[in-house]
Amino acid sequence: MTVHLLGAKSSPGCANYAMKRIAEEFGSQYGAGAAKFITHNFCVDDGLVSVATEEEAVNMLQRTKQIC
Q: How far separated are the first and last CA of the chain, in Å rounded?
């Protein structure tokens, strides 16, 4: 098997593991803030965090997309 089935009981755990793994592996390349956002503010595929400015939010989302 080379893919993970969407909707399987293990899907949320696999998604969380994958997100934390890419944050750990690529965080230093794309910034600690984006890695911390992925590690501490994501549940499966939903991320929620508050930042001070719109510019900061856009920057963090761009770096998070690059990590992913």
A: 22
DSSP-derived secondary structure letter, 46: E
Global pTM reads: 0.78
HSE, side-chain direction, 13 A CA sphere, residue 7:
0
Phi, psi torsion values for 47, nearest 5 degrees = -115, 135
The per-residue pLDDT for 1 is: 61
Mean pLDDT, consecutive 10-residue stretches, the chain (68 aa), reads: 79 87 92 91 86 94 92
| Cα 38 to Cα 17: distance, rounded to the nearest angstrom | 11
The helix-helix angle for 54-67 and 32-41 (nearest 10°) equals 80
Distance CA 17, CA 55 (A): 29
